[in-house]
Amino acid sequence: MADPVRRLLTGSPGGGAQADEGVEEGGGTGERKTRVEMKLIQPRSEDSSGAGLTNDITAMMLQQQVNRRKAVLYLTLTGLLIFTTAFLLGYVSFRGMCRLCVDEGEMVPVEDPAGPDQPAGGGVMYLGELRDMLKKYLNEEKIESTVRRVSRATHSTGSAEGNALASEILQNFQKLHMDHTWTDSHYATLQFPSRTQRNALWLVDAEGVELEEIPLDSADYCAYSAMGTVTGGVVYVNYARQEDFEQLRALGVALNGSIAMARVGGGVSFAEKVWHAQEAGLVGILFYPDPADIPQDPRRLGLHGNAAISEHVHLGSGDPFTPGFPSFNHTQFPPTQSSGLPLILAQPVSANVASKLLSQLVGVACPRGWQGRLPYVRCVVGPEFSVGGRRVRMAVYNSMSPVLLNNIFASIEGKTEPDQYIIMGAQRDAWGPGAVKAGVGTAVLLELARTFGTMLQNGFYPRRSLLFVSWDAGEFGNVGATEWLEGYLSMLHLKAVAYFSLDQAVMGDDALSAYTSPLLADLIEGAIKQVDHPKHSGQSILSLAEAQGGWRSKIVKPLYLNSGAYSFTAFGGVPAMELRFHEEGRVYPFVNTQLDSAERVQELLQGRLGVVGRTVGELVGLMVLKLTHDLILPLDVTCYSTAALRLSAQLNQLSAELQVRGLSPQWVYRARGDYSRAAKTLQEAIKNTDIQDERMARLYNTRIMRVEYYFLSQYVSVVETPFRHVLHGRGDHTLSALTEHLALLRTQPQLFNEARFRQQLALFTWTLQGAANALSGDVWNIDNPF
Question: Which residue, among 74, 62, 82, 76, has the nearest Cα to 9 in the 3D structure?
Fold first, then answer.
């Protein structure tokens, strides 16, 4: 007899017996069942006791199997329930505290910050927690000590001191918790004072015979001045602004062939002063610090009478002998040079030298507001001397030299979007000790790198990458930064979210100025709301600015040519900002002099150098945190609608004059409307999109990041016109040039050039229209019914 249990489990009847349930009715031969039947099968034997035993055993075994399966299932479900409950309880408890590590490494809880801040993508910390961490780790003592260490002596590009400082900064980066550190090298042509011939001034008589040499300090010079010797009368030109030369022409002053004497300051750089003098027909220009602008007593934080201020005079940035191209040593360039190189001589002089020359001038009295405070000087403009026929001879003997530049980089790689960069940078070199010019920026840069590196070890989870850069050759016109921009221009508009310049960040402690791209302006409000004013503890920077009449008018300023941030926006199309604390109504007098030392900065700030430097670091750090935390970049894409609207209003006011010449502004109106609509549509789309949709967020961020790039005119040459931005750039294609030309329709209609105006209007219109099209997104979203 076959085993009934085995017969049950295998489903095959023993002894050839046929189970009644194994055959389907009406089916002929039965189809074998492949599943285990739960109904017991009667054996062939008719022994009732045997059949009963078999049934009992079978039932018992089946019941045991069912019980085992139930037990396994129950234990599994119980384990999952316990694990899930423990995980959720741990997660909720974890989210209720900020896991901050102190120096010894223990975990300490802090209060959960108020507000609707969301955690960083993939991270475990709220933005408020990251702000607290930033404030905790920033160290003002380290900033002060670094300024003192960096500004011990002159450290110009290419010098032994400059190379030693570069190595020191690289080693500092390598000691921090950085993902990458590296050096980016370029070869650039720089100009230095000649080692064999000193720049000089002479008073000469009518026949050109030298009567007296006026001594100059060999360290004082203007990089990229033209070289040679010129002779002429002296014309006092105030600050050498465009409006100053217009006043001189109105007075009938002879300018051609003369040498200009210009005050430092006035809101224009040395390079712009040279350009205006060159356009006016002068052959040379001398720069001096007037006591009305800069105090003269060094014991009271002023210059002494024999001090001069040096600055480069290239109307541009980067290596002027490779305009628009990166200065890599392996690249062979055609013989070319920047159109911004001056054609006239330029030299800085002291207030004493200026007083000696200006006191001898005769001629037309100065216009109102031109009177400085030079001793023994009656304000006249020249160009004649009181002694008939006397003139000035000026000689400049600077020399060109190729120099290896080293930009030092460190980076923290983003965890979600590592290919998007937020960049912080500072100039490293200085012609003097450079405490303000280079020391403060370098100190804040290193402290931010150290702070973010420490945060990374204690729970900071950056969505985007952070880059920290020490730039070389900043004294020569941001050469190191611009050469890097030129080398990577084709990719930066897709990768660089924003740039923060730390150059000259501390020149006082009264007022804050933010020289910025309008796209970043909204970030400032959030930062200054949370940071105390360094001079007024317990009061935020925002509250003080509001009390003085509104924070935007007090703090937000336009980018300017010599700013470390300017090239990033005007040349590279990257939103950029430079923060600066300064004295209200006063200038720091020692920049670009041999007196720019840490001791003088500390005396000016009454010992608060570290405090003010830390405030700058906190402001920049908070804005960087916001940019690296938010899923959608917090940049204001509507900011340029206002500038276009102002042009439309001006065109509308001059519509009659334009119609007489057959000119119509309708295409500008249409382009302005298209841009405004595209910007608003993008903002609305962002508001109505699932904030956690990573794909859509990346698409939106790509369009936001490229807004500045859209305003780089595609219709001018990057070699001839490097600052192609139509709103921040320089050249005939810009909005400022267009509006100045347009104003001539009423002030001086005879100077209005219709052909030039048509070209200007076309360049601006199509750049604005192109920005509107790009901001709209895909081509099927563009609706331009031309």
Answer: 62
Beta strands in 338-390 (DSSP E): 345-348, 361-365, 380-385
Omega prior to 665 cis, within 30 of 0 = no
Task: Report d(CA 678, CA 372) in Å as an integer.
Answer: 51
Question: Which residues, 6+ apart, have CB-to-CB distance to 669 below 8 Å?
Answer: 648, 651
Report whether 470 contacts 428 (CB < 8 A).
yes
At 571-602, the pLDDT tens digits run: 999 999 999 999 887 788 899 998 999 999 99
Longest alpha-carbon distance in the chain: 152
> Per-residue pLDDT for 242 more than 90?
yes
Helix (H) or strand (E) segment spanning residue 399: strand 399-412
> What mean pLDDT, rounded, does the chain reach?
84
CA distances from 88 to 93, 108, 446, 624, 710 (A): 8, 21, 40, 32, 47
Instruction: Please report the beta strands in 450-597, taking only residues with DSSP state E, as ranges in sequence order.
Output: 464-471, 496-501, 506-507, 511-516, 532-533, 536-540, 556-557, 576-582
Residues 317-351 as b or e (16 or more Cβ within 10 Å = b): bbbbbbbbbbbeeeeeeeeeebebbbebbbbbbbb
Q: Is the pLDDT of residue 358 over 50?
A: yes
What percent of the chain stands above pLDDT 70?
82
| In 78-171, beta strands by DSSP E | 100-101, 107-108
* Contact yes or no for 132/98 (Cβ under 8 A): yes
Q: Which residues pair with 383 in a beta bridge?
A: 363
Q: Residue 606: exposed, middle, or buried by beta-carbon count in 10 A (0-12, 13-18, 19+)?
A: exposed
Contact indicator for 591, 426 with CB cutoff of 8 Å: no
- Cα angle value 483/432/183 (rounded, 5°): 35
CA-to-CA distance for 596 and 154, rounded, in angstroms?
A: 10
To which residue do tokens 């001045």 refer? Answer: 225
Tokens found for residue 550? 């509104």
At residue 344's C-alpha, the angle toward residues 340 and 350, to 5°, is 105
Residue 117 near residue 622 (C-beta atoms within 8 A): no
Distance of alpha carbon 30 from alpha carbon 460, whole angstroms = 72
For residues 513 and 511, give the distance between their C-alpha atoms in angstroms, rounded to a whole number: 7
Domains of the chain: 4-71 (no CATH), 143-192+406-629 (3.40.630.10), 200-397 (3.50.30.30), 641-781 (1.20.930.40)
The pLDDT of residue 14 is above 70: no
What value does the mean pLDDT take over residues 32-52? 39
Which tokens hold the place of 688? 């109505």
| Weakest-pLDDT range from 74-83, 205-214, 265-274, 351-360 | 74-83
Closest CA to 482 of 572, 421, 402: 572
DSSP 3-state percent helix, strand, coil across the chain (nearest 5): 40, 15, 40
Q: Which residues, at least 6 apart from 580, have a Cβ–Cβ distance to it below 8 Å?
A: 504, 505, 506, 507, 512, 513, 514, 515
Q: Which of 97, 100, 94, 172 is nearest to 136 (CA)?
A: 100
Q: Which residues of 573-584 are buried (b: 16+ CB within 10 A; e: fewer)?
A: bbbbbbbbbbee
